[in-house]
Design goal:
The chain has 209 residues and is mainly alpha-helical. It has nine helices and no strands.
């Protein structure tokens, strides 16, 4: 898509505003006119920037997962053992170091949209799933770093551990959102410490086919 710098800026403004609205209302319930009104963009101009609402959704999710990856690497840039850096990530779910009043879980589109887009759009599901798979690989790498530097004991395959931890934290984020209480996230942190420091003795099974 060849757009002028001004049009590119407007398109990005639509994406940024859409992200905030999707966090509040979800994707399916959000109308195009509501997005355009919030952006102060003229009615009917949406299709100048996006071929469809689904294309808009894919772009929004791709920017989200790319931005999340950059934010994660910035968080992990500070020195520390593998275990310290891994726990720094989980701690950010409850309290963002840049804004302790909220955590990453509160602005997570996986928490907000995973079930919805999986039924709604295969393309959007794929974008979100690819982002999650990259994140799981990064978490697994931190587990491996911790084992290599001695801050974590050896245990189950690192990717299996990463999956179990991420699944637990997603569930905790949903419960925290439902209860409007950070207790589920605090409990997830305690369970994470136990799982990691006890050599991953919690059963992690690999399906057989």
């Amino acid at each position: 898509m060849n757009l002028s710098p001004k049009a590119q800026a407007t398109r990005q403004h639509v994406l940024d505003t859409g992200y905030r609205l999707v966090l509040q209302k979800g994707f399916a319930a959000l109308g195009l006119q509501e997005i355009l009104k919030a952006c102060a963009v003229p009615k009917g101009s949406f299709y100048h920037y996006f071929a469809s609402k689904e294309v808009f959704g894919c772009e929004l999710l791709q920017q989200y997962v790319d931005g999340y990856g950059c934010k994660l690497e910035q968080l992990l840039a500070e020195p520390g053992t593998g275990r310290e850096r891994l726990m720094r990530y989980w701690d950010a779910w409850a309290r963002d170091p840049a804004d302790p009043a909220q955590g990453w879980a509160e602005e997570c589109l996986v928490v907000k949209l995973a079930a919805e887009v999986s039924d709604l759009s295969e393309d959007m599901r794929r974008v979100l799933d690819q982002g999650v798979q990259r994140l799981l690989q990064r978490i697994a790498a931190l587990v491996e770093e911790g084992r290599a530097d001695g801050s974590l004991p050896n245990g189950k395959p690192a990717l299996d551990v990463a999956r179990v931890l991420y699944q637990m934290w997603l569930g905790a984020a949903l419960l925290s959102k439902l209860s409007q209480d950070r207790l589920p996230l605090q409990q997830a942190r305690e369970a994470t410490e136990h799982l990691l420091l006890c050599g991953n003795t919690v059963a992690l099974s690999t399906p057989t086919h």
